[in-house]
Amino acid sequence: MSEATTTETTQPSEYEHLRRKRKETEGTVELAEVVDVWVGESEVVCRFGFEWTNERVRRTYDLDSDRDVARLERLCETNGLAFEQVAHLDGSLVELAYTGTAWMPTAEAAYTDGEGGAVETFRAECRLLIRELATAPAFLRRGVARIRGLTMTQTIIAVVLVKKVAIIALVAYLLL
To answer: Which residue, among 6, 5, 22, 26, has the nearest Cα to 14 in the 3D structure?
Structure first.
C-alpha cells in the first residue's frame, strides 16, 4: 500500500507518555488539527497534531493510487473542500481514530481494509469501480451514469436480482 503513517516525536515527558498510552487504545477517536499539508508531483503529505501531545501524525497519500485519491477526496469533503483545494486543509480540525497500530482520519475508514461499516465500504468500492469503468467505451459509461443515479434501495434490489439470475444460470448449466 502506498500510504504511510508515521509519528514524529521528541522526547515526551512521563505525563505525556502515560496520557498518550491511554489515548492510543483501539477505537479511540480524537480531534486533531491539520498542522501542515504538502502537495508534490506524485504525493500529498498531511501532518496532524493533537492538543494533548507534541507528537505529529504524518499521513502520505499517493496520487497515482485511486484508493489514496479517494481517501484524500473524502477527507476534503468532510471539511467542505474540493479535492483541488487540499492545500487549504491546513489549520482545519479532523477526527482521527486509533486503529490499534496507527491514527487514521475517520473519513477514510471506508477505504481501508478491515475498517468502516459494511455499507460505507460497499459504497467506497462501488465508487472506485465506477471510476475505473468511466474510462471504458461509451456504452459502459452510459451504464455507469445510470448506476450512479440509483438509490440505495434500488441498488439492493438490483444486487438481489443479479444474484437470482446467477443462481438460475448456474443451475441451468449444471442440469444441461
So the answer is: 22
Determine the angle formed by the axes of helices 138-148 and 118-133, rounding to 10 degrees.
150
Question: Cα–Cα distance between 3 and 114 in angstroms, integer?
Answer: 15
CA 60 to chain centre: 13
Kindly state the cell numbers that stand for 129.
469501480
Q: Give the residue among 96, 101, 109 at the shortest CA–CA distance from 46.
A: 96
The C-alpha cell 503513517 sits at: 5
Where do runs of H (alpha helix) occur along 24-151?
66-78, 118-133, 138-148
Put simply, whether the predicted model's pTM sits higher than 0.85 gets the answer no
With beta carbons less than 8 A apart as the criterion, state whether 42 and 63 touch: yes
pLDDT digits (tens, 9 = 90+) for 60-81: 999 888 778 888 888 888 888 8
Structural Rg of the chain based on CA atoms = 21
Hey, what amino acid is at 27? G
CA–CA dist 52, 23 (Å, integer): 10
Alpha-carbon distance of 125 to 90, in angstroms, equals 28
Q: Using CA atoms, how far apart are residues 117 and 129, in angstroms rounded to an integer?
A: 18
Exposure string (b/e) for 72-86, b if CB count within 10 Å is 16 or more?
bbbbbebeebeeeeb
Q: Is 96 exposed, middle or buried (0-12, 13-18, 19+ CB in 10 A)?
A: buried
